[in-house]
Design brief:
Layout: E1 5-8, H1 11-20, E2 25-27, H2 35-47, E3 50-52, H3 58-70, E4 75-76, H4 97-105, E5 108-109, H5 120-126, H6 134-145, H7 152-161, H8 166-179
Parallel strand pairs: 1-2, 1-3, 3-4
Antiparallel strand pairs: 4-5
Length: about 180
């Protein structure tokens, strides 16, 4: 059983995560968090800690950002969009149990301070910006690092705010090259 409480968006997400791991979960039921839901999450955060696992899309990212402000020491798990998509939907409810387990093995803490370790120049040098396939490469490296997908600017921010080290960066780039 996972010690922390996993915060997801909806009941379908709870069902899918329940197929992957044994854990307690709370559903936000969308961006307009009810006061009672926030209090449930706060109680879990203070007593056991929480893991934020939202959909890899725009609304999921907005929910993650809001929860991050309310609960700054929460852990974050990311399922890559490519592993949580069907022809007409994107969400945790569409991810395989294996993808969910993999995401929960690479938890990150969102640091409020920017490490300043990475810049756009690092993305260009690695081919993660400025090339036709940069978006795909960022998605692969983000999945390896457990920080999810972002455009170039967002990706640099994630690298600097999720505590990624140069060693992790180099290892992820090498794994990405080996997969290609």
């Amino acid at each position: 059983m996972i010690k922390q409480v996993i915060v997801v968006e909806g009941k379908s997400d709870i069902a899918r995560v329940g197929m992957a791991v044994d854990a307690d979960m709370i559903a936000t039921e969308g961006f307009a968090l009810k006061k009672t839901t926030i209090e449930k999450i706060r109680y879990a955060y203070e007593k056991r800690g929480i893991i934020i696992l939202t959909d890899p899309d725009g609304p999921g990212e907005r929910i993650r950002q809001r929860l991050s402000k309310l609960f700054p020491k929460a852990l974050h798990a990311f399922v890559p969009k490519s592993e949580a998509s069907t022809e007409d939907d994107v969400g945790i409810e569409d991810a395989s149990p294996e993808s969910i387990r993999k995401a929960l093995q690479t938890l990150r803490v969102l640091y409020q301070d920017d490490s300043g370790l990475f810049s756009a120049a690092d993305l260009f040098a690695a081919g993660l910006a400025g090339n036709p396939d940069s978006s795909l490469k960022r998605a692969r490296v983000g999945a390896i690092l457990g920080i999810g997908y972002g455009n170039g600017k967002q990706f640099v921010k994630r690298l600097n705010h999720y505590g990624i080290t140069r060693e992790e960066w180099d290892r992820a780039l090498q794994m990405c090259r080996e997969d290609a």
